[in-house]
């Protein structure tokens, strides 16, 4: 699955984001909220210095994920990803590019953060967030008050 270095979530949800409460376990650390089975989010990404607006549609029941990337002063790139590991990336401009990729994993399951290491609370873009690390690959920031994702940082060898 293609992931950016980092991105900030600006949610316009459909259906509304309703965090699930996980079963209480013997821990004082908070548990990351599973994603809703279907949602739409608008994100602003800063990837290798270039800004882009990305609309994400996550559809776990149908095992698909769509993202539309509008690059700043650039073209619009569409990405469709399926649970079977097949992904299509294409444009609808005059070049009509299309790339097919196969990845050994499919889309993220709603509880993909299970087993993540709790790192404490930090402020990010004005939000007080709980922060988790998942297998030294991603730092995931979730708003303490609403349990909505605020920020992701994918591991690139540099400290946050």
From TrEMBL:
Residues 1-22 form the signal peptide. InterPro entries: At4g14100-like (IPR038941). Keywords: Signal. This is S-protein homolog.
């Amino acid at each position: 699955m293609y992931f950016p270095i980092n991105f900030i979530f600006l949610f316009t949800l459909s259906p509304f984001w309703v965090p699930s409460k996980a079963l209480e376990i013997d821990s004082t650390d908070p548990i990351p909220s599973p994603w809703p089975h279907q949602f739409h989010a608008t994100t602003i990404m800063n990837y290798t210095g270039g800004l882009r607006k990305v609309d994400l549609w996550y559809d776990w029941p149908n095992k698909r994920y769509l993202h539309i990337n509008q690059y700043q002063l650039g073209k619009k790139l569409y990405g469709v990803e399926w649970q079977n590991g097949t992904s299509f990336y294409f444009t609808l401009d005059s070049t009509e590019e299309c790339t097919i990729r196969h990845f050994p994993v499919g889309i993220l399951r709603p509880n993909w953060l299970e087993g993540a290491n709790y790192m404490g609370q930090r402020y990010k873009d004005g939000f007080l967030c709980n922060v988790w690390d998942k297998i030294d690959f991603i730092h995931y920031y979730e708003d303490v008050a609403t349990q909505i994702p605020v920020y992701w940082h994918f591991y690139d060898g540099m400290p946050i």
